[in-house]
Specification:
The protein contains seven helices and twelve strands. By secondary structure, it is an alpha+beta fold. The protein has two domains: about 150 residues, N-terminal domain of MutM-like DNA repair proteins (Alpha-Beta Barrel); about 120 residues, Helicase, Ruva Protein, domain 3 (Orthogonal Bundle), CATH 1.10.8.50. Strand 4 and strand 5 form a beta hairpin. The longest helix is centred in the C-terminal third of the chain and has 22 residues. About 5% of the residues have low confidence. The structure holds a DNA duplex.
Length: about 300
DNA sequence: CGCATATCCTGACCGC
DNA sequence: TGCGGTCAGGATATGC
């Protein structure tokens, strides 16, 4: 499940292998891949063909490639969301098609193709305008933070908050906005308009590090607790990034790059019944929001006023 | 409007 | 060996 670290590994791979190249042709091989591009796949192709991939930028789980004209600036971007199972691959044109190949980009240099492979089709592609947004500043983490396109966001990303690894993330504002909400802590962490890039795995891991229960009411969260959650997120995301970042030097941009981290380092996620690494108490698994929540019953006690 | 839930999707896995 | 049921969850449409 690609969350922030996995998407960042993919972003670095795209920056390494695709940025600077000119798109010659695009094929969309499944109707669901362009469902968010309302004008349809042919329009997405027309808006991409002949343009230069100027950069690879990320905010939260969204990745986008500003598309520049020969003049150099970019008014639109190719937005990619990996969903649950999406992968971006850089492969030779004669490599056999993957079973779940959904989109394919060829370039004028005749080099390797970019492919979007997605088994479960929760992911998607859209070509959309870059727009100025109230939060201003660089749009996210990219290779060229001073470029004109880095100060605008693709329309579908305009409502997405900055992520915990963004240098401009405002910790105090996060704590303040958290207290304005009437919900549980984990629900808030999964809301991409409050903080982005967090999914089920990193939410559970960060809450374990912060020793906070997922149903703790946001309304009464202290600044110190909010800071502890952010520290937990940054810790686990940075570690996952370090583990996944080792493989992007190859000619293969793969969302599975961080899998080695999962094998060894998850404290609670997917560890139901196994001992908490801190206190040895068996990890608890609860049904929550149509998915699972993992926590340590001793380190993360249920608050009296839990907000389920 | 704020918040919660239903929905999309496919393959792995499990019990019978 | 097959078959039905369950599980995985990001983002959004909807409903209250």
């Amino acid at each position: 499940m690609p969350e922030l670290p996995e998407v960042e590994v993919v972003r670095r791979g795209v920056a390494r292998w695709v940025v600077g190249r000119t798109v010659r042709e695009v094929d969309f091989l499944h109707p669901r891949v362009t469902r968010r591009h309302l004008a349809g796949p042919q329009d997405a192709v027309a808006r991409t063909r002949g343009l230069v991939v100027a950069d690879a930028v990320r905010r939260g789980k969204y990745l986008w490639l500003p598309l520049a004209t020969a003049g150099g600036d970019a008014d639109e971007a190719l937005v990619v969301h990996l969903g649950m199972s999406g992968q971006l691959l850089v492969e030779r044109a004669d490599a056999p098609a993957e079973k779940h190949l959904r989109a394919l980009w060829r370039f004028t240099d005749g080099g390797e193709d970019l492919r979007f492979v997605d088994q479960r089709t929760f992911g998607g592609i859209a070509v959309v305008p870059l727009v100025a947004t109230p939060d201003g500043g660089p749009g996210g983490l990219g290779e060229s933070p001073d470029a004109a396109w880095a100060h605008r966001l693709p329309v579908p990303v305009a409502h997405i908050a900055r992520d915990p690894l963004d240098p401009a993330f405002d910790d105090a504002a996060f704590a303040r906005r958290l207290r304005e909400r009437s919900t549980g802590l984990k629900r808030a962490l999964l809301d991409q308009s409050l903080v982005s890039g967090v999914g089920n795995i990193y939410a559970d891991e960060a809450l374990w590090r912060a020793r906070l229960h997922y149903a703790r009411p946001t309304r009464s969260t202290t600044r110190a607790q909010a800071d502890a959650v952010l520290a937990g997120l940054r810790e686990v995301m940075t570690a996952a990034l370090a583990a996944g970042g080792t493989s992007f030097d190859s000619l293969y941009v793969n969302v599975n790059g961080a899998s080695g981290y999962f094998d060894r380092s998850l404290a609670v996620y997917g560890q139901g019944g196994r001992p908490c690494p801190r206190c040895g108490t068996p990890v608890r698994r609860d049904a929550f929001m149509n998915r699972s929540s993992f926590s340590c019953p001793r380190c993360q006690p249920v608050p009296r006023s839990a907000h389920w």
